[in-house]
Specification:
Radius of gyration: 22 Å
Strand content: under 5%
CATH superfamily: MFS general substrate transporter like domains
Largest sheet: none
Shape: globular
Number of domains: 1
CATH architecture: Up-down Bundle
Low-confidence stretches: 1-17, 441-448
Oligomer: single chain
């Protein structure tokens, strides 16, 4: 019987009609998977950072100082860091469907239960458990996308996934402001309690839906035709064949590769920027002269909009040029400049929003670019474990940054010294990636 499998050349350099089939195939994959994963990630970020709005009232009710609040924010990353690698390796073993279901159910239950906190120790415990529950979600999805998309499509598809963070900020700000403004003491519950309950419950429902909706690999996708499955699988197989022969395939080998730690340093810039953007934006806007909670929520969405637009443009440019180093370094530089300006110029809310928008550009664009690099030369167990290690190490900065900012704010009454430290670390991370990632390993010259 003749072999009906399409060769890679037939897939990647087809006549016009076949090219249309390839594009239609990836549109179908994107519509099916990315729509659902996008919604999951919106819920994930909404439940992770809604504490930045809750703290406007929560600190008073639980008796938390700024330093204590910063500690609670940081404790999220303890379990998150420790369980990133095991959770990502588990996804490779049991599949995305079971992994995403487990993660979403646990984080949804914990986030909803935060509505019933009455003491600081409960806040600390809840944040620690929430981080443990969410561990592996981000690197797991990055690994999962590498099962479906070849390298040439990865920055753009990652940027679309990251749009969910922007959507969480755009939706979450006004929504959280609305809840805080209108649910004070409804049925005897404080507004921040309603915030955790109403924004946590959808994750539980979506976790159940993930069990029935997600497909682990293209080979299992009954919703694709035979030809469409061959197109997706063929592109990925060709990408694996074109990886260097010395590409790490075992986790221990990957752990000895210095590029893993270079990429981890680059990834660390993202959660460090996120410390400012996700946990202190409402406070910064309030200090810039805005007192209405709903207005704070609406204004806090603006930096996310700017960051999302910049990310799409930068990711498209990076994919078209197959260039990662310059795109990453310039993105992190924008964030460093925005953070420095925030300490000098942000005395009016309009200037504060402009500075936060530069931080947002770094936050989104750097994340879209950095995660195109590991799958370009890691494979097999090394890809799963290496991505988990990079994500875990990168979050170490996210553990310390909220503590530093909260402590500095408590001691000095200002964020300036802490934000300047953030600016320096973000700039250094960009330089490390620029000089530490070999040009020939940035992206495979393949892809449908």
């Amino acid at each position: 019987m003749a072999d009906s499998t399409l060769s890679y050349e037939e897939v990647s350099r087809p006549p016009v009609a076949d090219s249309a089939v390839v594009e239609a195939t990836y549109r179908k994959v994107t519509l099916r998977l990315m729509t659902f994963l996008f919604f999951c990630w919106v819920l994930n970020y909404l439940d992770r950072v809604n504490v930045s709005f809750a703290q406007l009232q929560l600190k008073h009710d639980l008796g938390l100082s700024d330093a204590a609040y910063g500690l609670g924010v940081s404790l999220f990353f303890v379990g998150y860091i420790l369980l990133e690698v095991p959770s990502t390796l588990m996804l490779r073993r049991i599949g995305a469907r079971k992994t995403v279901t487990r993660i979403m159910l646990l984080w949804g239950i914990i986030s909803t239960a935060m509505a019933f906190m009455t003491a600081p120790w409960q806040f600390y415990l809840a944040r620690t458990l929430l981080g443990a529950a969410e561990a592996g979600f981000w690197p797991g999805i990055i690994l999962y996308l590498s099962y479906w998309y070849p390298g040439q499509r990865r920055a753009r598809i990652t940027s679309r996934f990251l749009l969910a963070i922007a959507a969480a900020g755009i939706i979450g700000g006004p929504l959280s402001g609305f809840i805080l403004q209108n649910f004070m003491d409804v049925w005897g519950f404080r507004n921040w309690q309603w915030l955790f309950f109403l924004e946590g419950l959808p994750a539980v429902i979506t976790g159940v839906a993930a069990w029935f909706y997600l497909t682990d690999k293209p080979q299992d996708a009954a919703w694709l035709s035979d030809e469409q499955r061959r197109i997706v699988i063929g592109a990925l197989e060709e990408e694996n064949r074109q990886k260097p022969h010395d590409a790490p395939s075992r986790l221990l080998v990957a752990l000895r590769d210095p590029r893993v730690y270079v990429i981890a340093a680059g990834w660390a810039t993202v959660p460090i920027c996120g410390t400012i953007l996700n946990y202190w934006t409402p406070t910064i806007i309030k200090q810039a002269g805005v007192s209405n909670l709903l207005h704070i929520g609406v204004l806090s969405a603006l930096p996310y909009i700017v960051g999302a637009i910049a990310m799409l443009l930068i990711a498209r440019s990076s994919d078209l040029r197959l260039e990662r180093r310059w795109h990453f370094a310039l993105s992190t530089t924008a964030g460093a400049v925005g953070a420095v300006a925030l300490t000098i110029l942000a005395h009016h809310w309009t200037v504060a929003i402009a500075c936060l928008s530069l931080v947002s550009v770094s936050y989104f664009a750097a994340a879209a670019i950095i995660w195109t690099i590991p799958p370009a030369y890691l494979k097999g167990e090394a890809a799963a474990g290496g991505i988990g290690v990079i994500s875990s190490l990168g979050q170490v900065g996210a553990f310390f940054a909220p503590n530093v900012l909260g402590w500095v704010k408590t001691v000095t009454g200002s964020f300036s010294a802490g934000i300047l430290l953030v600016a320096a670390l973000v700039f250094i991370g960009g330089i490390v990636v620029f000089f530490g990632v070999p040009r020939e390993r940035q992206a495979p010259q393949t892809g449908a």
